[in-house]
Specification:
UDP-N-acetylmuramoyl-L-alanine:D-glutamate ligase; ten-stranded mixed β-sheet; kinase
Amino acid sequence: MIAALAPNPSIDRFFLVADQVRAGAIHRPAELVATAGGKGLNVARAAATLGGDVRAIALLAGHAGRWIADELLDNAIRADVVWTTGETRTSLSAADPESGRPTEFYERGESTDPAAWERFAERVSAVTDARWASVSGSLPPGVPASASADLVERARETGARVAVGQSGAALTAALGAAPDLVKANANEAHGATGHDQPRSAALALHDLLSARREALGLGAPATIVTAGEDGAYLVDPSGSLWRGSVDARGPFPNGSGDSFLGGLLVALDAEGDGEPRWPETLPLALGAAAANAERAGAGKLDPRRARALAAQAVVTSA
């Protein structure tokens, strides 16, 4: 089972407009897609769509939070919900069909009640049947970056392996807690390592994480840096470097990184309790990311298309 932690969910609204998005102009969307979003729930939805056994753990508030809870129920995604005060945030993206390049407005959200955050953290500790747990996305305002490290440690104490998909100070804190896997995009990896190139960033990220895990007496980790249409670079626990790619281009890249992680976790969960055959987990991740980019709405992918694309993926030693 996969436990997908969602500390700062959002209603993600995507507008597809007929013409290029222009400042000061009136736009009448040709299509609107609203999803229960934020990175953590995007990962959960992609994994569930691909047939994974998933449980989302989400911190929700207000009318928007109730909408998200209903949406998760409608999509048959199991969810442990912790309620807090205030209102869950909303994020807006708009793009035209020709470029697909989104203009984005992401609310930070409201500060959460400290008691509610503690209940959320305790809910993570109560999950005892997950083989993998993911810690994805931002933290609510007022919650310190160090909370990411706490979530990693709590998830590991349940017996789960832990995957992290965060950025900035939250990623730095999570690295300090030594997760089993870090998945970052090129910008996030650059922020953590100072390396511009995805290949070198994946290696540098692996060095950082390996040193921390060794200091704690833990086994070697895996790191992945995604590079959009150029695929992904994986450094497995042995230190071997792999590059995976799939020859597919979609106009809606929002959420492809989250779908990549969702697909990866489904493949990892299917590997069982032994050491994963890491290169063999990349195709489903790549297929999920590419299928996500073909459909408007983050984490809303066609599972048959994702698996068809996975069958076309190429993974080579890099």
